Request: fold
Amino acid sequence: MSGRVQGVGFRAFVRTNAKALGLRGWVQNEDDGRVQVYALGSPAALNELAGLLYKGPPAAEVRGVEEQEASVQQLSSFDSD
Reply:
């Protein structure tokens, strides 16, 4: 995600929603001010999370979301840095 997505509770927002949707993965801040999310789960749950990422928490200003497929990582929960 790009925009104002660091320092606004974005990682906690992602973690809370991803766990509620039963997803596994992680979320982390990038050095360039973006936030990166990696999520595994059902297509329906991933689509729901993607919709939430475009909105973000109330203090965020999401200007862009780039979605791409990635290799599967063996994860048992959803974490953040």
About this structure: The CA atoms of residues 15 and 78 lie 6 Å apart.
